[in-house]
């Protein structure tokens, strides 16, 4: 629907936002999909709702930026010890591929 019937999709999205803002008293909505954000942005509709609509890519980048800034202020570093641990040999032996 997003690609073939964008106007119908925007109407459905608008209905959903209205319902969310009224029933759930949402303070803002972040669409689940970047295509939704792109459709709304391309039609200058991000500011046409009763609640703010945050474009998802920008929201993700801003969240990452805020976390990075907070980590620097607190002197925290990323833990890479467990992220790059090699899986147990018993697990690797069951894989039908070769890992060196």
Structure in words:
The protein has 100 residues and is mainly α. The chain has one domain (1-100). Helices cover 50% and strands 0% of the residues. It contains four helices and no strands. It has helices at 6-23, 34-42, 56-74, 89-92. It is extended, with a radius of gyration of 21 Å.
Topology:
Elements: H1 6-23, H2 34-42, H3 56-74, H4 89-92
Task: Please sum up the structure shown.
With 100 residues, this protein is mainly alpha-helical.
Overall domain count: 1
Number of strands: 0
Radius of gyration: 21 Å
Low-confidence stretches: none
Give the proportion of residues in helices.
40-55%
Helical element count? 4
- What's the pLDDT, averaged over the residues? 83
- Helix-strand string: HHHH
Distance between the termini: 45 Å
The structure class reads mainly alpha
Range of strand content: under 5%
Per the principal axes of the C-alpha atoms, what is the gross shape? extended
Largest sheet: none
């Amino acid at each position: 629907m997003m690609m073939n019937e964008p106007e119908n999709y925007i109407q459905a999205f608008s209905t959903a936002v209205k319902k969310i803002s009224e029933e759930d008293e949402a303070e803002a909505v972040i669409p689940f999909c970047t295509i939704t954000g792109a459709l709304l942005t391309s039609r200058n509709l991000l500011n046409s709702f009763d609640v703010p609509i945050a474009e998802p890519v920008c929201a993700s980048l801003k969240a990452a930026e805020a976390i990075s800034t907070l980590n620097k202020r607190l002197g925290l570093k990323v833990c890479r010890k467990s992220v790059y641990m090699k899986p147990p040999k018993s697990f690797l032996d069951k894989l039908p591929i070769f890992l060196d």
